[in-house]
Amino acid sequence: MLSSKHKSQSEELFRNYLPEDVLIEILVRIPPKSLIKFRCVSKSWNLLISSPYFISMHTQSFTNPSNRLMISRYSKIHNREIYSVHLNNEDCSVDENIKIEFPFGHSLPWYYRIIGSCNGVLCLTSDTFQRTNPIFLWNPAIRRKVELPVPQATFRSMGRDEFVLGFGFDVKNNDFKVVRIAYGRGDQYQVPHKVEIYELSVGKWREIDGQVPLNCVVEVFYTQVFLNGIVHWTAIKRSRRSLLKNLIMGFSMTNEVFEEMTLPDALANAWKFNLNTAVYEESLAVLQYDRQHKSCCIWVMKEYGFPESWSKQFYVRLNQGFTMVLGFRKNGDVLLDGREGKLISYNPGAAASVHLGIHGMPFSFYIHTYVESLALLIEGKQAHAPKQQLQ
């Protein structure tokens, strides 16, 4: 720990020999955890590091190692969620230098669902099927969280009880956003949808004029993908003849407008619950499950925005106790959820699988590249695990 004298000397050295813009260029390359400590050097450093301008620059400039994965799952033994960071190596070993404390306790009868992850921030909601499900933003690296206010479109105020969430980052305005699409009861295709946006910098919901594409519905538990500034879901669209077709529905976080992307016939006419969006090697992908033949086909849009570039990448056999595809590793392996709650690494070429020694309840796994940032430093509250979890 630096003494007050040494802190003053360090600050004076930086002031005398480094212009402020050079100092900022140095600090934006330093990991968030170190910067949190650097705020104690002086008031001026605290003001600089805590400023929206610096946090924005750091988010855009700081390069995180891409060889680490964050893995979450629900542990029945511990009766709570467990988050851990793993090296993206052969055996997916735990990074012992990073400890993540889950700050939401275990008051739910089940686990929180992760809507998405972006720039080191996770968006979570509970799936307890209450009329108003709480929504949180959480930065595990610096232990900050934000609970979103209650949206305008609730069951009590609007007579609506189904909604879809999307989470991402508005690069133009340097802001995190959550989009919420509320559906009416009954025939979802015939009832106008209400769309609300939550902006972190504003701290409240607002209704937007951007209309969901006509007769287009996203199912509540469809996964989202945030790519190229757009949230993507697989969706169902009803035609004039009442026929249903699948497509990709996107929402631009910057322009706040919806758009549609067509799918190849093999996907457009597939059973709607057998499709989900994903990211494969930084490209938009769709997972097509075949429950009858117990397999999953990975389709990839080779050139973003060009539907004709959709192509089959490979198949994953699910007849060995696997339930679903969770993500993809740098070595080309596929991460799978096993029926017995085991995390499996599967090599499509060799058709060989390896149990990674990580356990959780089936369907509770979530995997994403681990990223550190200063996001939520200003808006967020301290987010530490309850004492009973630390014991």
Automatic annotation (TrEMBL):
InterPro entries to which the protein is assigned, alphabetical: F-box-assoc_dom_typ1 (IPR006527), F-box-assoc_interact_dom (IPR017451), F-box-like_dom_sf (IPR036047), F-box_dom (IPR001810), SCF_F-box_component (IPR050796)
Domain F-box intervals: 12-57
Protein name per UniProt: F-box/kelch-repeat protein
Species per Swiss-Prot/TrEMBL record: Forsythia ovata
